[in-house]
Amino acid sequence: MMKKIPLIFVMLVVGTILLMPAGPLFGAVGCDLNDPDRDVARLFPGSTGYKTNYVAIDQRGGPSLLSQIEDRLGDKFKGLFETIDVPYTLYEIFKGKDKIGYIHGVNEKGQYGGIQVFLVLDLEGVIKGFYFQKLTSRYGKELRNPRFGEQFIGLTLKDFYSYDVRTGKTVGASGVANIKNPVPEAEPDFRAALRGTKKNLILVDEFILGNKYLQYHQSGGEENK
Amino acid sequence: MIKILKVAYKNLLRKKARSGLTIIGIALAAWVLVSLLGFNRGYESSLNRDIDNLGFQMIVTAKGCPYEAATLMLKGGTGLRYMPESVAEQITKDPEVEGVTAMLMQAVFDPNKGESGGYSAYLGVDPATFPRMKSFLEFKQGSWFTDPDAMEAVLGYEAAELEQREVGDLLLITEKDVEVKVVGILKRTGTQDDGTIFLPLKSVQKIFGVKDELTGVGIKVKKEADMAQFEERMYKLPDVQVVSLSQVKQTIMTLVSTAKVMVFSIALIAILISVVGVINTILMSVMERLQEIGILKSMGATAWDIFKLIWIETLILCISGGIIGAAMAMATAKLTEVLVRQLLPYAPSGGLVQINLHLVILTFGVVILIGLLSGVYPSWKAGRVRPLEAIRSQVE
Asked: d(Cα B167, Cα B300) in Å, to the nearest integer?
């Protein structure tokens, strides 16, 4: 005797199948290194290998995580392309079997085009290198000058909490206040670089460092004031 | 007739498991058949649509000139050749031409764009003809240019995403130090237009100092046009090369035809397996019921009556299997499509598995034909049973 399959079960299975998307699913664009083999060796001298991880806010925590990130950033994710489904590419860097740091990039809206802000970080989330992979600006030469990037070295997310991405002002004696814009006319791209850096550090803290720097945000950046 | 139907139905119910398994076998064959035919139909129409979505079937460019941005990039942004705007006017006069659109491609190098600099390509298009020719283009934001020589840009979706541009933002043509305003962002099309930055033709001519020059002319020919002859005529224009997308389409279609043969071979194998399964089931059923058939004949049933009875049993199995298989194929069409896309990531956009009523009826017809054919031998064998021998054989 064959048992009857409950109608509700059949309807559920058929319904699920019919509701499955038929068309190709297009994701948002991420921010990968152009040539990871070359770039990792250049950005992290002494490294012997790397592991690539793809993480998106909608996979890790959805809207609640997004609002937590926006709260820490002090600004909303906005526009057509800064969305919850952007896949972030996190490179874990190894020397032999030991992990020695991370490389992570984000897309940021610049004055004349997309800016790709890459950070080289140690295991504690301290910036060891700053790098514009892509930049369209009248002042690209000055902003891509290594001396500009060197100003970020040694800073952490703790320093960036004192930077208000909406006004471009820094509260207190934070290391961020010491970062100088090489060309006053490049202010929009300069601010985009700082916003991108802060966003980059928050994402690394959320995705990799286990919210190590969240406490400084909750204390309102008091220690920097 | 209704009586025979009832008897045949009851006979099948006597061996539920066997009948059920046979129906499943037929259903699977019908499922495979409908899905493969649906895939074949969907793939071909998607491919056709993708090619037709290019907007024009032919591009005429100056001899040696790259005709799309990717080729230009491969050449390091160099190798642009020009032809006079009058070529477009000349082509328009051809009676087989439905429309032409003039284009001018330019590329600039930005030393600060990447680690070792990078190129940006701009395609100047005629606002009067290009949008009409590519009517499938839809806007995510904004619209086409406000003026034929406006300093404005429309970006394909991927270009906008890479440059993080939205309507109202500025775009800098670095080498020329010219700012243009973004007035439109296109929706994704799955074509090379996604990565293109469009500017009005006149603006590109002005910015790059190439007045009255073009790098290409897109041509849409009338449906009844003889492409080969038309191409010949285009080659007669001085110093041009002709890139015919119909040739590309023809080559792809030839490849698709080869794949089609494979697809139909698989379908044929599935059908053969189900035919053998049906014959086996009915034949077994006939052998088991020899005595019963003998009694029926001794009671006055003719060979034709027995033939009909067994044949109808076969038909019931096939029709049931056909209905279930077609329903399964329709219900799982989307799942099949997802699986096919996993296997063929570069398949054309749009519905890859297209199952319609015509296809279902066709498959149903094939399944009934299978039933009729595979039922002939067991029915004929049953009809030939001699009553006395049959009854005696079972008694012994």
From this structure: 87
pLDDT for A25 equals 41
Of A107, A135, A138, the CB nearest to B113: A135
Nearest CB to B112; choose among A108, A109, A135: A135
- Asked if A150 and A131 count as a contact pair (C-beta separation under 8 A), the reply is no
CA–CA dist A202, A196 (Å, integer) = 10
DSSP strand E in B129-177: where? 139-142, 152-155, 170-173
Q: Which of B233, B192, B240 is nearest to B60 (CA)?
A: B240
Helix ranges (H only) for A44-186 are 57-60, 62-73, 140-143, 146-150, 157-160
Instruction: Provide long-range contacts, Cβ within 8 A and 24+ apart, for A151-154.
Output: A151/A178, A151/A179, A151/A180, A152/A119, A152/A127, A152/A179, A152/A197, A153/A127, A153/A128, A153/A129, A154/A126, A154/A127
Q: Tell me whether residue A1 is in a domain.
A: no
Q: Cα(B129)–Cα(B103) distance, rounded to whole angstroms? A: 10
Residue A84 is encoded by which pair of tokens? 């919850």
Contact criterion met (CB < 8 Å) for A24 and B351:
no
Whole-angstrom Cα distance, residue A34 to residue B359?
47
CB contact under 8 A, A111 and B170: yes
Q: Confirm whether A205 is domain-assigned.
A: yes
pLDDT tens digit sequence for A27-64 = 567 788 988 999 999 999 989 999 999 999 998 989 99
Quick check: B190 pLDDT over 80? no
User: What distance in Å separates residue B336's CA from the closest CA in chain A?
Assistant: 9
Signed CA dihedral, B86, B89, B93, B94: sign only: positive
Q: Measured between CB atoms, does B163 come within 8 Å of chain A?
A: yes
Q: Answer yes or no: pTM beyond 0.90.
A: no
* Domains: count for chain A: 1
Strand partners, B101: B218
Structural domain that includes position A99: 29-224
From residue B272, how far is each of A223, B258, B277, B313 by CA, in Å?
Answer: 79, 22, 9, 19
Which of these, A53, A68, A31, lies nearest to A200 by C-alpha position? A31
Contact B10, B312 (CB under 8 A): no
The string of pLDDT tens digits covering residues A87-101 is 999 999 999 999 999
**Of B381, B391, B324, whose CA–CA distance to B30 is shortest?**
B324
Q: What is the distance between the alpha carbons of residues B341 and B42, in angstroms, rounded to a whole number?
A: 12
Q: Find out whether A129 and A117 touch, Cβ atoms under 8 Å.
A: no
Three-state DSSP class for residue B135:
coil
